[in-house]
Amino acid sequence: MPLTPDQQAEIETARSEERTTRRATVPGMEAHLYNAHEVLDHGFVRVIDYMGDDNAIVQAARVSYGRGTKAVQNDAGLIRYLMRHWHSTPFEMCEIKLHVKLPVFVARQWIRHRTANVNEYSARYSILDREFYIPAPENLAAQSKINNQGRGGVLEGEEAARVLDILRADSNRAYDHYQQMLEQDGQDGLARELARMNLPANIYTQWYWKVDLHNLFHFLRLRADAHAQYEIRVYADAICKIVADWVPHAYAAFEDYRLGGVQFSGKGVDCIRRMIAGEQVDQASSGMSAGEWREFQAVLKG
Q1: Contact partners, residue 136, CB within 8 Å, separation at least 6
Q2: Is there a single domain that holds both residue 109 and residue 222?
Q3: Distance (Å, rounded) from C-alpha 259 to C-alpha 251?
Q4: 19 is in which domain, residue-wise?
Q5: Are 161 and 254 members of one domain?
Q6: Do 248 and 224 have their domain in common?
């Protein structure tokens, strides 16, 4: 179960409290507050707090007071303009704070986005739970033959069972030794900050992650992409659903121009123009490397 009984009790207490405020609130986000959206086998994402809405973005862009006389359609159009032309500061007026439970190896990918405020559960002070990410059989893949940081076909049969047995056995063995090294039965034991070094990268950690909408969109553009590693992509997908309820106009523009859009190099644009003109273009005449040409072709074919 992703949530401990204590965490669940804390959430129920928080959700039972009602507060009156003059600040902008969004009904969709109010429904998300404190709810845990389960991810992977033991993980979750939940909204702790948020600031701003679609109106905060257009208000910042116009540097105006209040909603003014602009129609909602104009607001949506302005947001699309801002997204289309890569404006950033208006989107920085909105912020969100998330509580995330995730495997350590996913956290190490995630933390490379150095544009957020993070406070992680400390294994120097506390003892980590015996919870490990073990892939579902359909996500147990071999190494890709053409991409050094990607996956190939799904492992099946005896090979899949062998790998899963190793993952489970090694995870539990490491945790057994972790417990044995800690203070017990009157022995001093090893300090927690040292004992943790024996734990595997698939053990779960937790953190609070606060980020503005501009940098969140950058995170989602990379991590909700089909080429992102599955284990971080499912967290990004869960966050996308939350953001769509928070800032629907901004998310629709992001989905259209970033998630659903593509960007071509100067050589790519030149090749497209030559193709439209009726010229036969191949990799040799494109000026692109073999890898770039392959990616270019993949975008054109859809």
Answers
A1: 41
A2: yes
A3: 10
A4: 5-133+202-259
A5: no
A6: yes
Q: What is the pLDDT along the chain (302 residues), one digit of tens a residue?
A: 577 888 888 878 877 777 788 888 999 999 999 899 999 999 999 999 999 999 999 999 988 655 554 565 688 999 999 999 999 999 999 999 999 999 999 999 999 999 999 999 999 888 999 999 999 999 988 887 777 777 778 888 999 999 999 999 999 999 999 999 997 777 788 999 999 999 999 999 999 999 999 999 999 999 999 889 999 999 999 999 999 999 999 999 999 999 999 889 999 999 999 999 999 999 999 999 999 999 999 999 87
Q: Which pair of structure tokens corresponds to residue 89?
A: 């500061």
Give binding residues for dUMP as ranges. 109-112, 120-124, 196, 223
Task: Based on the fold, state whether residues 211 and 79 are members of the same structural domain.
Answer: yes
Q: Count structural domains, the chain.
A: 3
Question: Which amino acids are annotated catalytic?
Answer: 223
- The binding site consists of 89, 109-114, 120-124, 196, 212-214, 218, 223
Secondary structure element (H or E) that encloses residue 37, with its range? strand 36-39
Instruction: Please tell me whether residues 51 and 85 are part of one structural domain.
Output: yes
3-class SS of residue 205: strand
Q: In 10 A of CB 130, how many CB atoms? A: 13
Question: pTM score, two decimals?
Answer: 0.88
Same domain, 106 and 164: no
